[in-house]
Amino acid sequence: GAMNGLSLRISLAFCLFISFAHAQTTPGKLTFALPVHPGRITLEQGAWQVVELSAKPNGNEWGERAAQGKQHMLAFLFAAPDKAPLNASSCRDGMLKAEHAEPAVQNRASMRSTSGVEIALAVLLASKDARMSLRAFVASGDLCGDLLFNAADVQPGDEEAYRLRMETAKQTLLTLTFDPDYKPTFKDAFAYADVEYTKHQYSGAAAA
Asked: How confident is the model at residue 140 (pLDDT cuts 50, 70, 90)?
């Protein structure tokens, strides 16, 4: 009945909350790791609040959506064996081409995080609403990290507000670490499986 459905949804929401806790394998950091494939990205969490996690069934993609006020970050770590060997720039250019996003690119640049990781950047201007976003990429071997930053409260043409939002993104990127040789732990595998299972159950319940 309706009460049973409500109880199931409350239970699933609680499970999703537990998944968020499990996924934060290092307190104070946003951690991206796959269950079997080597490699890990970390970012200092700062004021970012995780609002959604995703895990592909094939074990090759982990994603996190986070928010800081009206600024948003969507980030993925994924394996692309057919594209190896990758570096930051080739991952960026390959992803933008595959998404047919090249016409939106306003500028390409690069930077290094404090730990020395090469980060390839692209500033994009959305054709439908003229809003800017920043894409950042790191890569090695067949592993790529793709991070998108945008701000819902920045009006088109407001250069100062955009600059401030991008400065927040830059400060986050400076904290990035990337270890392509990192060996996944039980915690990483458990967090991945937990999110994958919870998402599958939640989508099934929502369709019922």
From this structure: very high
pTM (2 d.p.): 0.81
**pLDDT tens for each residue of 153-173:** 677 677 777 778 888 899 999
CA–CA–CA angle 91, 160, 174 (5° rounding): 40
Which amino acid belongs to residue 95?
M
- How big is the chain by its Cα radius of gyration, in Å? 18
User: What's residue 61's pLDDT?
Assistant: 95
Tell me which residue of 97, 94, 76, 75 sits closest to 84, measured CA to CA.
94
- Rounded Cα distance between 80 and 21, Å, is 28
DSSP H helix total and E strand total for the chain? 4, 10
Show the tokens assigned to 18. Answer: 């537990």
